[in-house]
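[agent] plan:
  1. take the single chain provided in the ticket
  2. run structure prediction with default settings
  3. attach structure tokens to the ticket
  4. add a short note for the reviewer (M.T.)
[agent] executing step 1
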Amino acid sequence: MLTFALFGAGRIGRLHAANIAAHPKARLGLIADVAHDAAQTLADQHGATVGSVEEALATDRIDAVLIATSTDTHAPLIEAAAAAGKAILCEKPIDLDINRATAAVRAASAAGVPLAVGFNRRFDASFAALKARLDTGDIGTPEIVSIASRDPSPPPLAYVRVSGGLFRDMMIHDLDMARWLLGEEPVEVHAMGSALVDPAIAEAGDVDTALVSLRTASGRLAQISNSRRAAYGYDQRIECHGSKGMLRADNLRGTTVEIATAAGYARDPILHFFLERYGPAYKAELDAFVEAVLAGKPPVPTGEDGLAALRLADAAQQSLETGRPVPLPQG
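[agent] step 2 finished; step 3 output follows
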């Protein structure tokens, strides 16, 4: 049994709290949040106590921490938890600054504590099945990975201003998926972006529509398409083209029912947002973390995976600003 302290009682914290409480090998021991009332409400729902970060890290009754607070707190909380010897599952990104993020990952490594980063899309059943078939050579050598990831609507401007930009906030999930599926590290990044959804996003210094191309040393390619607006729902698709064929994972819908009439064919719309689309993936992510820690194995995705995705996001931002492809060091 792994006893967790949950840092953060907001929207994503509430999801994690329910998953921990329902897990047969985990227990939600303590919740810490600067919003005490939110923490208390959540604790009451799941039989946990409310306390401070310091209290959580000082007691032997807590084995692991799940960090679901604002991004600017992730790195210091990782370092504090590492110093206290707690296993760590942290929402992405580790930090918006690569040097600060690297310091946090190094602290966890030096302390010898497990650190996993919440790239939950790796645990989506369809994406995981696609990856497994890719790894068994069903389509031969992978040559092109295509990822479409589009939100139904943009976040509030107040969030955009502190998010670190589309590449570090939104596309970082897709950059991690591209690395995972390519099987090789990208050595070149080329990005283009525009503010087509809301001019205020451009005024905030960000883009809401972007394309990124990645190339590996062997020539494998990936292309990522992001938009902050998709009128038809939460668009999440992957296609992998290889020397012997193609693998594709499509959007999920409320049901598989299709109706055919004289007016044509119709199906349910795709799921509306990430809490619906990736609800099962968050549960699988927690399960993988718990099983790894209890077995004494390194959980994945690792802190190094978090750093690699952040480096790609930084390179994409640099490419956008310069209008040129950005080379990345090999090895």
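[agent] step 4 note for reviewer: Residues 185 and 331 are 8 Å apart (CA to CA).
[agent] ticket updated
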